[in-house]
Specification:
This protein is α+β, with helices and mostly antiparallel strands. The protein contains six helices and eight strands, in the order H-E-E-E-E-H-E-H-H-E-E-H-E-H. Helices cover 33% and strands 26% of the residues.
Length: 175
């Protein structure tokens, strides 16, 4: 049984307070990943953007059937929203056409997971980190910059990334 190493309740309260103010960034090391979050404006709303190892990749977020299809970064740090495949109004129309048994066979009653890099509140982000991560460390901006620089060194790979090249490719001379 692994024990969790998390910040104190006072530190969590400070993180929540900082995420509720504009232009303040928090930096964390969660299970070996470098996570930073900041409150920013997305269209006409304020949302918390989450960066993992200094980046947000488009392949992390989207629509999934279940959590087993997700990238580890998406599973741990991005917001999941479970929604039905069809709206109830549409479902009633299809039930009249096909019947409930056929709708069930076709999977109209199923759900999809929508994964997004934004959080609507600091409390939901903090609750997610507490639930999914075992080791969480608060970093200063200087520590975060050093850790990001160490990741970009040749041969350094963050945990769970097998798609990153192990070394810079060598340039071959042209004949």
């Amino acid at each position: 049984m692994s024990t969790k190493q998390h910040p104190t309740p006072e530190q969590w309260a400070d993180i929540t307070r900082r995420l509720d103010s504009l232009f303040d960034v928090i930096h964390l090391r969660c299970d070996g990943y470098l996570v930073s979050a900041t409150l920013g404006r997305i269209k006409n709303r304020l949302e918390i953007m989450t960066y993992v190892n200094g980046e947000i990749k488009g392949k992390w977020w989207g629509i999934y059937d279940d959590e087993s299809d997700m990238h580890p970064e998406a599973r741990l740090f991005l917001r999941h929203s479970k929604r039905p495949i069809m709206k109830p109004k549409e479902l009633k129309i299809w039930e009249k056409i096909h019947g409930k048994r056929e709708c069930k066979k076709r999977g109209y009653y199923g759900h999809k997971l929508f994964v997004m890099p934004t959080w609507l509140s600091a409390r939901s982000l903090v609750a997610n980190l507490k639930r999914r991560c075992t080791v969480i460390e608060i970093l200063t901006p200087e520590q975060y910059k050093q850790a990001i620089a160490a990741l970009t060194d040749v041969g350094a790979q963050p945990p769970g990334r097998s798609d990153a090249p192990s070394a810079k490719p060598t340039q071959q001379a042209r004949p």
